[in-house]
Specification:
With about 475 residues, the chain is of the alpha/beta class. Strand 8 and strand 9 form a beta hairpin. The strands form two sheets. The protein has a six-stranded mixed beta sheet. The radius of gyration is 29 Å and the shape is flat. The N terminus is likely disordered. It folds into three domains: about 130 residues, Gyrase A, domain 2; about 140 residues, tRNA modification GTPase MnmE domain 2 (Four Helix Bundle (Hemerythrin (Met), subunit A), Up-down Bundle); about 180 residues, Rossmann fold (3-Layer(aba) Sandwich).
């Protein structure tokens, strides 16, 4: 509670000073997680970091750069000892933000943190950091581009191994370097084209220059087109694959949800039509993120509330990346053709990838061999699993099929070129590709207009990395960062 009050008071003071703060002001924040812990990290960034270390340690000399030193931390006003901890000095530009930075590694009790944060807040020129402000400062000083900053945010929020791997590639700058290379190609093509426009009549620039520009633009357009046609792998991995459990009433859809998440997330009842709304849970399956939704049973309902639930279920099916189609194993034919017909009557055509789940295997007794054979048949049936939500039979097989489908949808985050991770990237790349597609028709009519197409295409690439027109997206990118990063 004391820590919360201290942070609240510091935040109010920071908000009051934020509008009038100079560009070179110094910010501070708790960069480790809240709550009691063994060690907490408080970070400062800005020209006042050196003075803050002097004030809190009471010593004129600073420790060697990037070397931890044990220091007694004191309140600058009362000289009362606040804690004994480790301090680290990062002189700019060799720091995360590119500015002078300091870190205080203190004990993680609320009283210690409250005292140190209050002491920092009373130093002149220091104010609490806004969410993502350290990373924003790093971007401003060229320590990373916007794609790397976005990757850092993804890394902080990563919950699965695959998400971590993808985010690390982006933090390391692979996506930014790819777009930077494309931007350099456009810059060179534009320079050659403009040189031909300016000096071509004087024979100072050879005719072959235009052919080289045309070839470079065609190759780049093809490369960007391939990059855009990745099946949204990066976006699915970043946000999670949305899977919908669909089926008739009373076939065990809610029981399946509870079995997969190992807790009673949905109400289970023998009464058909119990589920009226969409119940959603997030899971980690094989290192991939899965957002699983239980929906109302698909049937012609008469009750108005159930009708709304069925309508929501059908709408969710249209948005799904993956469908778990659940049928009653005791009520379906035991041959592939019959199973295919039962599945076709349940789901509309042109559905996303599907896994067929035949539930209630515990009711089959010795009659399940034929159905197991049908499940293993393959085409025209989707991957299928015979399970019992009551006994857990077949769960391993279902998880194996789920992991296989998720890996196919998300791809290997370490293989090939880095994937698109945000709709912002795909939007600008789509505009870039559209400008490149307009280049060739313009090239035959007006070289100056063709050059403008290349200029606009390069601008869209620059907006992804932040080299052009970054202001309008900065707040959107950094608003989801935690304070202290």
């Amino acid at each position: 509670m004391a820590l919360r009050r201290a942070l609240g008071a510091a935040g109010r003071r920071g908000a009051q000073r934020l509008c009038s703060a100079a560009p070179g002001d110094t910010v501070f924040a708790l960069s480790s997680g809240h709550g009691r812990c063994g060690v907490a990290v408080i970070r400062t960034s800005g020209p006042g970091s050196r003075g803050a270390l002097h004030s809190l340690t009471g010593r004129p000399e600073l420790p060697p750069p990037r070397v931890m030193a044990l220091r007694r931390l004191r309140d600058p006003d009362t000289h009362e000892t606040l804690d004994r901890g480790l301090v680290v000095w990062f002189p700019g530009p060799q720091s995360f933000t590119g500015e002078d930075c300091a870190e205080l590694h203190v004990h993680g009790g609320p009283a210690v943190l409250s005292g140190v944060l209050r002491a920092l807040g009373r130093l002149p020129g220091l104010r609490p950091a806004e969410p993502g402000e350290f990373t924003r400062r790093a971007f401003r000083r060229g320590k990373l581009d916007l794609t790397a900053a976005e990757g850092l945010g993804d890394l902080i929020h990563a919950e699965t191994e695959a998400q971590r791997r993808q985010a690390l590639r982006q933090v390391d700058g692979e996506l930014g370097r790819l777009y930077g290379r494309w931007s350099e190609t456009l810059t060179q093509a534009l320079a050659h084209l403009e040189a031909y426009i300016d000096f071509g009549e004087d024979d100072a620039v050879e005719e072959e220059v235009l052919a080289r520009v045309d070839a470079a633009v065609r190759a780049l357009a093809q490369e960007i087109g391939t990059h855009l046609q990745d099946g949204r792998r990066g976006e699915l991995l970043r946000g999670g694959v949305h899977a919908v459990i669909a089926g008739p009433p009373n076939v065990g859809k809610s029981s399946l949800l509870n079995l997969l998440c190992q807790r009673p997330a949905a109400i289970v009842s023998p009464v058909a039509g119990t589920t009226r709304d969409v119940v959603e849970v997030a899971l980690n399956v094989g290192g991939y993120p899965l957002v699983l939704s239980d929906t109302a049973g698909l049937r012609e309902a008469t009750d108005p509330v159930e009708q709304e639930g069925v309508s929501r279920a059908r709408e969710r099916l249209k948005q799904a990346d993956l469908v778990l189609a659940v049928l009653d194993a005791a009520a379906v034919p035991a041959e592939p053709a019959g199973l295919g017909a039962a599945l076709g009557s349940l789901l509309p055509p042109k559905m996303p990838p599907c896994i067929l789940v035949l539930n209630k295997a515990d009711l089959l007794g010795g009659d399940g061999a034929a159905l197991r054979g049908a499940c293993a048949h393959g085409d025209p049936l989707p991957p299928a699993a015979l399970v019992s939500c009551k006994t857990g039979e077949g769960l391993d097989r279902l998880l194996e099929l789920l992991a296989r489908q998720l890996a196919r949808l998300c791809g290997d985050p370490l293989a090939g070129s880095p994937s698109l991770t945000r709709s912002r990237h795909s939007g600008h790349l789509g505009e870039c590709a559209a400008e490149l597609a307009r280049y060739e028709p313009e090239r035959r009519q007006d070289l100056a207009m063709a050059a403008e197409r290349l200029r606009l295409a390069r601008r869209h690439l620059g907006r992804i990395t932040g080299h052009v027109g970054a202001e309008e997206v900065l707040d959107i990118i950094f608003r989801d960062f935690c304070v202290g990063k």
